[in-house]
Protein backbone atom coordinates (compact mmCIF):
# COMPACT_ATOMS: atom_id res chain seq x y z
CA UNK A 1 0.00 0.00 0.00
CA UNK A 2 1.23 3.45 -0.70
CA UNK A 3 2.17 6.00 1.92
CA UNK A 4 0.21 9.23 2.08
CA UNK A 5 3.23 11.28 1.22
CA UNK A 6 2.45 14.94 1.00
CA UNK A 7 5.35 17.10 -0.10
CA UNK A 8 4.90 20.55 1.36
CA UNK A 9 6.77 23.74 0.71
CA UNK A 10 5.39 25.56 3.73
CA UNK A 11 7.36 25.59 6.97
CA UNK A 12 4.41 24.57 9.10
CA UNK A 13 3.71 21.10 7.73
CA UNK A 14 5.58 17.82 7.94
CA UNK A 15 6.30 16.09 4.65
CA UNK A 16 4.02 13.18 5.44
CA UNK A 17 1.21 12.16 7.74
CA UNK A 18 1.90 9.64 10.50
CA UNK A 19 -1.73 8.83 11.36
CA UNK A 20 -4.95 9.77 9.62
CA UNK A 21 -8.61 8.80 9.21
CA UNK A 22 -10.31 7.59 6.03
CA UNK A 23 -13.89 6.65 5.16
CA UNK A 24 -15.10 4.49 2.28
CA UNK A 25 -18.14 2.40 1.42
CA UNK A 26 -16.96 -0.37 3.79
CA UNK A 27 -16.71 1.96 6.76
CA UNK A 28 -13.90 3.90 8.44
CA UNK A 29 -10.21 3.15 8.75
CA UNK A 30 -7.42 4.43 10.96
CA UNK A 31 -4.37 4.73 8.72
CA UNK A 32 -0.75 4.63 9.87
CA UNK A 33 2.70 4.63 8.38
CA UNK A 34 4.15 1.32 9.63
CA UNK A 35 7.16 2.55 11.61
CA UNK A 36 8.33 -0.98 12.39
CA UNK A 37 9.57 -1.44 8.82
CA UNK A 38 10.91 2.06 8.12
CA UNK A 39 13.19 3.07 6.48
CA UNK A 40 13.61 -0.08 4.37
CA UNK A 41 9.91 -0.09 3.47
CA UNK A 42 7.36 2.71 3.35
CA UNK A 43 4.05 1.00 3.97
CA UNK A 44 0.73 2.34 5.19
CA UNK A 45 -1.64 0.28 7.32
CA UNK A 46 -5.41 0.64 7.07
CA UNK A 47 -7.02 -0.60 10.29
CA UNK A 48 -10.73 -1.31 10.56
CA UNK A 49 -10.98 -2.58 14.15
CA UNK A 50 -9.87 -1.04 17.44
CA UNK A 51 -8.08 -4.29 18.32
CA UNK A 52 -5.83 -3.75 15.28
CA UNK A 53 -5.19 -0.19 16.46
CA UNK A 54 -4.24 -1.45 19.93
CA UNK A 55 -1.93 -4.08 18.41
CA UNK A 56 -0.28 -1.44 16.21
CA UNK A 57 0.50 0.66 19.31
CA UNK A 58 1.85 -2.30 21.30
CA UNK A 59 4.06 -3.49 18.45
CA UNK A 60 5.44 0.03 17.78
CA UNK A 61 3.97 0.28 14.30
CA UNK A 62 2.99 3.69 15.61
CA UNK A 63 5.02 5.16 18.47
CA UNK A 64 6.04 8.43 20.06
CA UNK A 65 3.93 9.91 22.85
CA UNK A 66 1.76 12.40 20.90
CA UNK A 67 1.23 9.99 17.98
CA UNK A 68 0.11 7.27 20.40
CA UNK A 69 -2.46 9.65 21.90
CA UNK A 70 -3.80 10.71 18.50
CA UNK A 71 -3.97 7.08 17.32
CA UNK A 72 -5.84 5.99 20.44
CA UNK A 73 -8.36 8.81 19.92
CA UNK A 74 -8.97 7.69 16.34
CA UNK A 75 -9.16 4.07 17.60
CA UNK A 76 -11.99 5.01 19.99
CA UNK A 77 -13.86 6.82 17.22
CA UNK A 78 -13.34 3.77 15.01
CA UNK A 79 -14.83 1.47 17.68
CA UNK A 80 -18.04 3.52 17.77
CA UNK A 81 -18.13 3.98 14.00
CA UNK A 82 -17.84 0.23 13.45
CA UNK A 83 -20.38 -0.61 16.18
CA UNK A 84 -22.96 1.78 14.73
CA UNK A 85 -22.39 0.45 11.23
CA UNK A 86 -22.72 -3.18 12.36
CA UNK A 87 -26.11 -2.58 13.96
CA UNK A 88 -29.47 -1.39 12.83
CA UNK A 89 -29.27 2.26 13.85
CA UNK A 90 -32.88 2.40 15.08
CA UNK A 91 -32.24 -0.44 17.55
CA UNK A 92 -29.19 1.16 19.18
CA UNK A 93 -29.40 2.97 22.45
CA UNK A 94 -26.85 5.49 23.73
CA UNK A 95 -25.83 3.33 26.70
CA UNK A 96 -24.72 0.53 24.37
CA UNK A 97 -22.55 2.92 22.39
CA UNK A 98 -21.03 4.37 25.54
CA UNK A 99 -20.24 0.85 26.77
CA UNK A 100 -18.52 0.17 23.46
CA UNK A 101 -16.53 3.40 23.75
CA UNK A 102 -15.47 2.66 27.32
CA UNK A 103 -14.36 -0.85 26.31
CA UNK A 104 -12.28 0.62 23.49
CA UNK A 105 -10.75 3.09 25.95
CA UNK A 106 -9.79 0.22 28.29
CA UNK A 107 -8.36 -1.83 25.42
CA UNK A 108 -6.24 1.04 24.12
CA UNK A 109 -5.23 2.09 27.64
CA UNK A 110 -3.61 -1.32 28.20
CA UNK A 111 -1.20 -0.93 25.27
CA UNK A 112 1.65 1.16 26.70
CA UNK A 113 1.86 2.56 30.23
CA UNK A 114 4.40 5.38 30.12
CA UNK A 115 3.26 8.00 27.60
CA UNK A 116 0.60 10.00 29.40
CA UNK A 117 -0.70 11.39 26.09
CA UNK A 118 -2.43 8.02 25.62
CA UNK A 119 -4.50 8.36 28.80
CA UNK A 120 -5.05 12.06 28.24
CA UNK A 121 -6.52 11.40 24.79
CA UNK A 122 -8.69 8.49 25.99
CA UNK A 123 -10.07 10.62 28.82
CA UNK A 124 -10.78 13.52 26.48
CA UNK A 125 -12.72 11.25 24.10
CA UNK A 126 -14.78 9.79 26.97
CA UNK A 127 -15.58 13.24 28.36
CA UNK A 128 -16.59 14.53 24.94
CA UNK A 129 -18.98 11.61 24.50
CA UNK A 130 -20.44 11.96 27.99
CA UNK A 131 -21.05 15.64 27.40
CA UNK A 132 -22.60 15.01 23.96
CA UNK A 133 -25.09 12.37 25.11
CA UNK A 134 -26.67 14.83 27.53
CA UNK A 135 -28.60 15.97 24.42
CA UNK A 136 -30.69 13.70 22.14
CA UNK A 137 -28.37 12.40 19.43
CA UNK A 138 -28.60 9.78 16.68
CA UNK A 139 -25.94 7.03 16.88
CA UNK A 140 -24.39 8.15 13.59
CA UNK A 141 -24.20 11.72 14.88
CA UNK A 142 -22.34 10.51 17.96
CA UNK A 143 -19.93 8.54 15.78
CA UNK A 144 -19.26 11.60 13.65
CA UNK A 145 -18.80 13.80 16.68
CA UNK A 146 -16.18 11.40 18.07
CA UNK A 147 -14.36 11.27 14.74
CA UNK A 148 -14.32 15.09 14.78
CA UNK A 149 -12.96 15.12 18.34
CA UNK A 150 -10.14 12.73 17.40
CA UNK A 151 -9.36 14.91 14.38
CA UNK A 152 -9.34 17.96 16.67
CA UNK A 153 -6.79 16.22 18.93
CA UNK A 154 -4.65 15.56 15.83
CA UNK A 155 -4.99 19.12 14.56
CA UNK A 156 -4.20 20.60 17.96
CA UNK A 157 -1.12 18.42 18.18
CA UNK A 158 0.05 19.66 14.77
CA UNK A 159 -0.44 23.26 15.90
CA UNK A 160 1.38 22.55 19.17
CA UNK A 161 4.33 21.11 17.22
CA UNK A 162 4.62 24.26 15.15
CA UNK A 163 4.45 26.44 18.22
CA UNK A 164 7.12 24.35 20.03
CA UNK A 165 9.21 24.50 16.88
CA UNK A 166 9.01 28.28 16.69
CA UNK A 167 9.75 28.77 20.39
CA UNK A 168 12.54 26.19 20.39
CA UNK A 169 14.18 27.56 17.25
CA UNK A 170 14.93 30.76 19.17
CA UNK A 171 17.36 28.67 21.25
CA UNK A 172 19.29 27.50 18.17
CA UNK A 173 22.06 29.63 16.67
CA UNK A 174 23.34 29.55 13.12
CA UNK A 175 26.10 26.93 12.97
CA UNK A 176 24.96 24.95 16.03
CA UNK A 177 25.73 21.27 16.38
CA UNK A 178 22.90 19.52 18.20
CA UNK A 179 22.34 16.06 19.60
CA UNK A 180 19.06 14.15 19.84
CA UNK A 181 18.02 10.77 21.21
CA UNK A 182 15.27 8.44 19.95
CA UNK A 183 12.76 9.86 17.47
CA UNK A 184 10.78 12.92 18.46
CA UNK A 185 10.02 14.09 14.96
CA UNK A 186 7.02 14.10 12.64
CA UNK A 187 6.74 10.32 12.90
CA UNK A 188 6.16 10.65 16.65
CA UNK A 189 3.39 13.25 16.37
CA UNK A 190 0.58 14.50 14.13
CA UNK A 191 2.72 17.48 13.09
CA UNK A 192 6.36 18.51 12.75
CA UNK A 193 7.50 16.71 15.88
CA UNK A 194 8.55 17.80 19.34
CA UNK A 195 12.36 17.78 19.75
CA UNK A 196 12.91 17.88 16.00
CA UNK A 197 10.42 20.72 15.42
CA UNK A 198 12.82 23.49 16.57
CA UNK A 199 15.48 21.95 14.34
CA UNK A 200 13.13 21.89 11.33
CA UNK A 201 12.02 25.47 11.94
CA UNK A 202 15.60 26.70 12.41
CA UNK A 203 16.75 24.87 9.26
CA UNK A 204 13.84 26.14 7.17
CA UNK A 205 14.62 29.68 8.40
CA UNK A 206 18.10 29.33 6.91
CA UNK A 207 20.11 28.51 10.04
CA UNK A 208 22.87 25.97 9.43
CA UNK A 209 22.53 23.12 11.89
CA UNK A 210 24.10 19.70 12.14
CA UNK A 211 22.45 16.97 14.19
CA UNK A 212 24.18 14.10 15.97
CA UNK A 213 21.62 11.28 16.13
CA UNK A 214 21.93 8.57 18.80
CA UNK A 215 21.01 5.24 17.22
CA UNK A 216 18.85 4.47 20.32
CA UNK A 217 19.15 0.81 21.17
CA UNK A 218 17.35 -1.53 21.41
CA UNK A 219 14.71 -0.54 18.82
CA UNK A 220 16.92 1.92 16.90
CA UNK A 221 14.39 4.74 16.57
CA UNK A 222 17.31 7.13 16.06
CA UNK A 223 19.03 5.14 13.32
CA UNK A 224 15.86 4.05 11.54
CA UNK A 225 13.49 6.97 12.01
CA UNK A 226 15.32 10.17 13.00
CA UNK A 227 18.12 9.66 10.48
CA UNK A 228 15.48 9.01 7.79
CA UNK A 229 13.39 12.03 8.75
CA UNK A 230 16.35 14.40 8.78
CA UNK A 231 17.50 13.07 5.42
CA UNK A 232 14.07 13.83 3.94
CA UNK A 233 14.57 17.44 5.08
CA UNK A 234 18.16 17.62 3.85
CA UNK A 235 19.36 18.44 7.35
CA UNK A 236 23.00 17.41 7.83
CA UNK A 237 23.36 14.63 10.38
CA UNK A 238 25.83 12.20 11.85
CA UNK A 239 24.52 8.90 13.16
CA UNK A 240 26.35 7.64 16.25
CA UNK A 241 25.92 4.70 18.59
CA UNK A 242 24.53 5.64 22.00
CA UNK A 243 27.86 5.14 23.74
CA UNK A 244 29.58 7.74 21.53
CA UNK A 245 27.65 10.76 22.88
CA UNK A 246 30.13 11.43 25.70
CA UNK A 247 33.05 11.31 23.31
CA UNK A 248 31.54 13.95 21.03
CA UNK A 249 30.49 16.16 23.94
CA UNK A 250 33.99 16.00 25.43
CA UNK A 251 35.65 16.81 22.13
CA UNK A 252 33.70 20.04 22.16
CA UNK A 253 31.40 19.65 19.20
CA UNK A 254 27.90 19.66 20.68
CA UNK A 255 26.16 22.99 21.46
CA UNK A 256 22.81 21.69 22.77
CA UNK A 257 20.74 18.55 23.27
CA UNK A 258 17.07 18.40 22.22
CA UNK A 259 14.90 15.45 23.31
CA UNK A 260 11.18 14.72 23.56
CA UNK A 261 9.29 13.22 26.51
CA UNK A 262 6.70 10.57 27.23
CA UNK A 263 5.62 11.98 30.58
CA UNK A 264 6.78 14.94 32.64
CA UNK A 265 5.94 15.08 36.35
CA UNK A 266 4.87 18.27 38.12
CA UNK A 267 8.41 18.82 39.43
CA UNK A 268 9.91 18.62 35.92
CA UNK A 269 11.28 15.06 36.08
CA UNK A 270 11.18 13.71 32.52
CA UNK A 271 10.46 10.16 31.35
CA UNK A 272 11.78 9.59 27.85
CA UNK A 273 13.36 6.81 25.80
CA UNK A 274 15.85 4.66 27.70
CA UNK A 275 19.27 6.30 27.50
CA UNK A 276 17.98 9.87 27.81
CA UNK A 277 19.09 10.05 31.45
CA UNK A 278 22.67 9.13 30.50
CA UNK A 279 22.67 11.83 27.80
CA UNK A 280 21.36 14.40 30.32
CA UNK A 281 24.08 13.58 32.85
CA UNK A 282 26.72 13.82 30.13
CA UNK A 283 25.34 17.15 28.95
CA UNK A 284 25.38 18.45 32.54
CA UNK A 285 29.00 17.33 32.98
CA UNK A 286 29.97 19.27 29.87
CA UNK A 287 27.82 22.37 30.58
CA UNK A 288 25.76 21.72 27.44
CA UNK A 289 22.10 22.90 27.56
CA UNK A 290 19.67 19.98 27.75
CA UNK A 291 16.27 20.95 26.33
CA UNK A 292 13.10 18.86 26.59
CA UNK A 293 10.40 19.64 24.01
CA UNK A 294 6.90 18.38 24.80
CA UNK A 295 3.28 19.54 24.50
CA UNK A 296 1.13 20.11 27.58
CA UNK A 297 -0.59 16.77 26.85
CA UNK A 298 2.70 15.11 27.93
CA UNK A 299 2.79 16.94 31.26
CA UNK A 300 1.20 15.06 34.13
CA UNK A 301 0.61 17.59 36.89
CA UNK A 302 -1.18 14.90 38.92
CA UNK A 303 2.09 13.19 39.83
CA UNK A 304 4.59 15.06 41.99
CA UNK A 305 7.80 13.45 40.71
CA UNK A 306 9.26 11.00 38.23
CA UNK A 307 9.20 8.24 40.87
CA UNK A 308 5.47 7.88 40.10
CA UNK A 309 5.89 7.36 36.35
CA UNK A 310 5.19 3.77 35.28
CA UNK A 311 8.07 2.46 33.20
CA UNK A 312 7.18 0.04 30.43
CA UNK A 313 9.17 -3.22 30.48
CA UNK A 314 9.38 -4.73 27.01
CA UNK A 315 10.14 -8.14 25.54
CA UNK A 316 13.73 -9.36 26.23
CA UNK A 317 13.94 -10.43 22.59
CA UNK A 318 14.32 -6.75 21.63
CA UNK A 319 17.69 -6.75 23.42
CA UNK A 320 18.81 -10.25 22.49
CA UNK A 321 18.34 -9.67 18.77
CA UNK A 322 18.96 -6.71 16.46
CA UNK A 323 16.43 -6.63 13.63
CA UNK A 324 15.94 -10.38 13.93
CA UNK A 325 19.63 -11.31 14.18
CA UNK A 326 20.52 -12.82 17.55
CA UNK A 327 23.52 -11.13 19.23
CA UNK A 328 23.45 -12.67 22.73
CA UNK A 329 23.81 -16.24 24.00
CA UNK A 330 20.66 -18.32 24.37
CA UNK A 331 19.14 -18.14 27.86
CA UNK A 332 20.90 -14.93 28.92
CA UNK A 333 19.13 -12.81 31.55
CA UNK A 334 17.94 -9.51 30.07
CA UNK A 335 16.46 -6.22 31.32
CA UNK A 336 14.52 -4.08 28.87
CA UNK A 337 12.98 -0.93 30.39
CA UNK A 338 11.74 1.17 27.47
CA UNK A 339 12.11 4.51 29.31
CA UNK A 340 14.13 6.17 32.03
CA UNK A 341 13.56 9.22 34.19
CA UNK A 342 15.82 12.26 33.99
CA UNK A 343 15.71 14.24 37.24
CA UNK A 344 14.66 17.85 36.71
CA UNK A 345 18.05 19.16 37.91
CA UNK A 346 19.51 18.12 34.56
CA UNK A 347 16.86 19.85 32.45
CA UNK A 348 17.81 23.35 31.27
CA UNK A 349 14.30 24.22 30.01
CA UNK A 350 11.07 22.53 28.91
CA UNK A 351 9.67 23.90 25.66
CA UNK A 352 5.89 23.55 25.45
CA UNK A 353 3.49 24.95 22.87
CA UNK A 354 2.37 27.55 25.41
CA UNK A 355 5.78 28.84 26.41
CA UNK A 356 9.21 27.83 27.66
CA UNK A 357 9.25 26.59 31.26
CA UNK A 358 12.35 27.27 33.36
CA UNK A 359 13.21 25.96 36.82
CA UNK A 360 11.61 25.77 39.33
CA UNK A 361 9.34 23.57 37.23
CA UNK A 362 6.78 22.93 39.98
CA UNK A 363 5.89 26.61 39.52
CA UNK A 364 6.48 27.20 35.80
CA UNK A 365 4.82 24.02 34.46
CA UNK A 366 1.71 24.68 36.52
CA UNK A 367 1.52 28.25 35.22
CA UNK A 368 1.97 27.21 31.59
CA UNK A 369 -0.02 23.98 31.37
CA UNK A 370 -2.55 23.82 34.23
CA UNK A 371 -5.52 24.79 32.04
CA UNK A 372 -4.64 22.07 29.54
CA UNK A 373 -4.46 19.42 32.23
CA UNK A 374 -7.96 19.92 33.61
CA UNK A 375 -9.62 17.34 31.39
C1 LIG B 1 7.58 13.25 20.35
S1 LIG B 1 7.99 11.81 20.94
C2 LIG B 1 8.71 11.86 22.53
C3 LIG B 1 8.90 10.50 23.01
O1 LIG B 1 7.73 9.77 22.84
C4 LIG B 1 10.07 9.81 22.29
O2 LIG B 1 11.25 10.49 22.59
C5 LIG B 1 10.14 8.39 22.76
O3 LIG B 1 10.72 8.10 23.78
C6 LIG B 1 9.40 7.40 21.96
O4 LIG B 1 9.51 6.08 22.48
P1 LIG B 1 8.83 4.92 21.66
O5 LIG B 1 9.11 3.70 22.48
O6 LIG B 1 9.47 4.90 20.32
O7 LIG B 1 7.35 5.22 21.60
Automatic annotation (TrEMBL):
One of its GO terms (biological process) is L-methionine salvage from methylthioadenosine. Keywords: Amino-acid biosynthesis, Isomerase, Methionine biosynthesis. Pfam families: IF-2B. This is Methylthioribose-1-phosphate isomerase. Its EC number is 5.3.1.23. Catalyzes the interconversion of methylthioribose-1-phosphate (MTR-1-P) into methylthioribulose-1-phosphate (MTRu-1-P). The lineage of its organism: Bacteria, Bacillati, Chloroflexota, Ktedonobacteria, Ktedonobacterales. Substrate binds at residues 63-65, 112, 221, 272-273.
